[in-house]
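Allow me, if you will, to draw on your knowledge of protein folds for a short while. The matter concerns a single protein, recorded as an amino acid sequence and a row of backbone structure tokens. Kindly check, if you would, that the fold set down in the tokens agrees with what the sequence suggests. You will find the record immediately after this paragraph.
***
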Amino acid sequence: MTSTLLPDSETSPRSVAPLLIALVVAAAAFRVALASSKSLVLDEFHTWYHATQPDVATFLRALYEDNHPPLSFLVVGVARAALGSTELALRSPAIVYGLVEIALVAALARRIAGRHAGPAVGLVAAALLATSAMHVDYGTQARMYALLSVSITIAVLATIDLIGRENPAKRTGAALALGAWAAFHAHYFAVQYLGLLALAAACAAPRRAARLVPPLAVAAALSLPWALTGFRA
């Protein structure tokens, strides 16, 4: 095996940065227009129920009777308090998550492609995600899936850097811990995704996969309060 599983790109992405920015701005404009044009649908009323609880105790008690973790509802509640109760205000966190993920996917594509691909590969990946019907849909709904998706994307990007770089930055481990923690508190599907991610890393780079253990252990420790209370219930 070579010294790096995924070589760093030798081509600067600066040449396509203006196009990527324009893509994110266009995606934002479309998502804002769509989120402003429709009433609450489906499980958005579920989010509304939790996000409008009058106090923390009632909020937690309602979640103990549910099968979802608290993070997405908490953020929507904060957005409602700050921006009001319009559909756009309630959906604003999901829009932000989706836009962040578009930028992260561009970086992820460049990282995977390595030095043999030009910087345009990131732009193409970002464009595919920005125009994905599913991504547009869950990125304009007051639900937890946009948060789950961007959290897992952060975890994937951090994992690839941890096993692919000879000397990954210290913040990479923190990014994995943050992504894993946020994903677990967004939706319990995160346990499956993170488990498969760890398994894939172990198969791809057995020696370097041990680097995942400390950040995932930190994420697990930070998740214990909810795991032993709300998740257990």
User: Anything to note?
Assistant: The longest helix spans residues 87-113.
